[in-house]
Design a protein that fits this description.
This protein has about 240 residues and is mainly alpha-helical. The chain is built from ten helices and no strands.
């Protein structure tokens, strides 16, 4: 079996889980996909593939739920995110694969700790600008721009929270993908992983949407945090071992 076939099969399964998490909680696609896909293709290609696939996933969700979107907040977070992206691109281009894996794992575990502790950021415009800049830097260095956005928006009503996040993710991802292409980071492995991920995402989203409608938010939150903690721990142990 060729290496690209293995990548494709793994990506389908991984992005089913990623889309499930995204639909059920409003975030989590990259948090699930990047570390898991990193075991298959390496951290750099994993974060680029997750961003490409995530742009399509969140774009579709944004279209379906545009009526719940807080447009001014989306614009603010997107512009701020673009300002933070160059710093993340520098990390992506200059860091070794091992260092990048460690950074991804640390960001993931830190996110789990902050969410589990119930940390809340201020919700004003200044906080949103800060969260947006941070999210842009995280997107282009780790593929995981969700943590600061989730923390600054988590007091929003569920439907507005999910819709506003999807719009922001889609726009930030689109800018990042253009940068990745311009820098030569989108190769055959990335394209295969992203394309295969798109095949698995519709199933994952349907399953996650059903969870969103039926499972209590607190119960699902515990399941997601436990899974993310396990993934981050394994990734960090592998990078340091």
């Amino acid at each position: 079996m060729s290496a690209l076939v293995v990548v494709a099969l793994a990506a389908v399964a991984i992005f089913v889980l990623a889309a499930l998490a995204q639909a059920a909680s409003g975030f989590g696609s990259a948090l699930v996909a990047v570390p898991l896909l990193g075991f298959v293709v390496g951290p750099g290609e994993a974060l680029v593939a997750a961003t490409v696939a995530g742009m399509v996933l969140t774009g579709g969700a944004w279209r379906r739920e545009h009526g719940h979107t807080d447009a001014p907040v989306v614009r603010r977070l997107t512009v701020a995110g673009v300002l933070g992206m160059p710093a993340g691109l520098a990390v992506l281009l200059l860091a070794s694969e091992r260092t990048l894996t460690v950074v991804i794992a640390v960001v993931l575990l830190s996110t789990v700790a902050l969410l589990a502790a119930g940390v809340r950021l201020p919700t004003g415009r200044s906080a949103q600008w800060g969260a947006g800049v941070t999210s842009g830097a995280l997107l282009t260095s780790t593929g995981m721009n969700g943590p600061p956005l989730v923390l600054v928006l988590r007091d929003e009503p569920p439907h507005r929270f999910r819709a506003t996040l999807q719009a922001t993710f889609c726009l930030q991802d689109a800018v990042a993908v253009v940068a990745f292409v311009a820098l030569g980071q989108v190769g055959p492995t990335v394209l295969v992983a992203a394309a295969a991920g798109l095949l698995g995402m519709p199933l994952g989203w349907r399953l996650g949407d059903a969870v969103f409608q039926r499972l209590s938010p607190e119960r699902f939150r515990v399941l997601v945090l436990a899974g993310l903690a396990a993934t981050g721990t394994v990734a960090l142990a592998g990078a340091l071992g």
